[in-house]
Amino acid sequence: EKPFKCEFCDTRFNRKPLLNDHIRMHTGEKPYKCEICEERFHQKRILQKHMRSHTGEKPFTCELCAAKFTTNGALQLHIKKHTGESNFHCVFCSAKFFVIYDLNRHLRIHTGEKPFKCEICDAKFSSKPNLQGHVRTHTGEKPFQCEFCNARFSHKPHLKNHIKNHAGERPLKCEFCDARFSHKPALLNHEKTHKVEKSL
């Protein structure tokens, strides 16, 4: 029995708190705020998932390879990679995907669609994460903090590259000499010096 009905649509719920969460999707109300980056959410459980992106907590473990994940959904997606299950296929090329979200994002490469628009400068992007990263260039927000030295970054990949420096990890090798680097931009800048030397 589901006695609680949404006033905006016909969806019904068996508990009122679930109805209240659902209604906030219609109204746009987001009462749950992240204290670290100030992003807001309409459900408490989504805020709790989001907090793991800051804390690094990964409570879901793959039984096949011991990889850890922040959400059960991410774990289930990972397990599909072990089983080889890929339900979604690109109609333009041979790419295959485990979830439809990734397929839709991939399709925009072919179509050129950029549905996510910056409200500050009207720049458009093919994915929401790209838009969010761009908006931080306007706001100066740096929500990703290094646990070793408190340095802060606007993009998570920049933090990951920074942490490699602490770990001494330098997996990328110059094709012209024995120099090694922790991230690709540094490698590419270094290799340019070789190309300049050759042109002289």
From TrEMBL:
Domain C2H2-type residue range list: 4-31, 32-59, 60-87, 88-115, 116-143, 144-171, 172-199
Gene3D superfamilies in the cross-refs: Classic Zinc Finger
GO molecular function annotations of the record: DNA binding; zinc ion binding
Subcellular location: Nucleus
Entry GO terms, CC: nucleus
GO biological process terms on file: negative regulation of DNA-templated transcription; regulation of transcription by RNA polymerase II
Entries under SUPFAM superfamilies matching the protein: beta-beta-alpha zinc fingers (SSF57667)
Alphabetically ordered keywords of this record: DNA-binding, Metal-binding, Nucleus, Repeat, Transcription, Transcription regulation, Zinc, Zinc-finger
Family the entry assigns: Belongs to the krueppel C2H2-type zinc-finger protein family.
Protein name (record): C2H2-type domain-containing protein
